[in-house]
Amino acid sequence: MDVNGSLQDVNVTSSIFQYGTRRNVASWQTVTAAVCLSPIIVLGVIGNLFSLLVWIKGRRRKTSTARYLSALALADILVLLLPAAEFWVFYVLHVDLRAKSWFLCKFYSYLTYLTPVTSAWILVAVTVERAMSVWIPHRINVECTIHSSSLIKNSFVVWLVLDLCLFFIIPFGIMLFCNISIMAKVVCLANARRNTLQARGGQTTAPRGGRSQKMLKTVTRRIIVLSVTYCVCNAPLAIYNLILISDGADDILNSEHIAGYRIVFHILMFLNNGVNFLLYCMIGSGFRKDFVGMFKSGSRTSTTR
């Protein structure tokens, strides 16, 4: 998403389109960006680095899911260091990096779209893989391999409508469908297992499952939480941009509030790229053990997640 927003924002933030690299930004925008975005960038980069280390050093490092999540961590780091950092420099330091040179203008214009789209589609890929592992578990090792996870490439243009489709609308639809199918399959399996246990003698509690079953539940729960977080954090900005390009934008949005919407929704979008490490720690005990194990001398991260 472009840090400079839509052309319909000209009347509200005309300072964006002034000549030169210095910008006159409202004080409340500077404070908001400094207080909210600074910890997101710093802690997000550190957290994603830790996540990357866990995924490439843990016991499950050879699985396609670990490769996808490693790629997701790298993509999130790039989002935080490039678009998010440019956004921070603009609103906190009042410097427009794109106005400094033709190269920086093209560089940030391209990567502002590339990095978030890449992050979104990596999450789509791992969500599809998780849905396949639930519905066709016997073929998951054939269809979702490390080799196939390295073949995903994204191509896109910088048009706003296409950006919305690639960054949110299409990923949101795919993830919504996959997560609904996962939950439906889980409910069906739980009902079938309960009926089987009752038919065998009225047993109402399932026997203790193996480690692989527990890991499957943890991984599935992790992917669902990541998908939901993505949708919650990115939906406001996507809806905002859809309204801006609609014919009734002037009737829906108050021009005095457009600048506030833009900065808040962008910060929320960047939050999605910085919060995954905390989600991993909250969901999986194996991830926490692997993370702690990296700091123990002479120990190896060999726990499952």
Automatic annotation (TrEMBL):
Membrane-protein topology: Multi-pass membrane protein
Pfam families linked to this entry: 7tm_1
Principal cellular location given in the protein's record: membrane
Keywords: G-protein coupled receptor, Membrane, Receptor, Transducer, Transmembrane, Transmembrane helix
InterPro entries in UniProt: GPCR_Rhodpsn, GPCR_Rhodpsn_7TM
Chain ranges passing through the membrane: 31-56, 68-90, 110-128, 223-243, 263-287
All residue ranges annotated as the G-protein coupled receptors family 1 profile domain in the record: 47-280
Compartments, as annotated in UniProt: Membrane
Name of the molecule in the record: SIFAR-like protein
Species this chain originates from: Mya arenaria (Soft-shell clam)
Lineage: Eukaryota, Metazoa, Spiralia, Lophotrochozoa, Mollusca
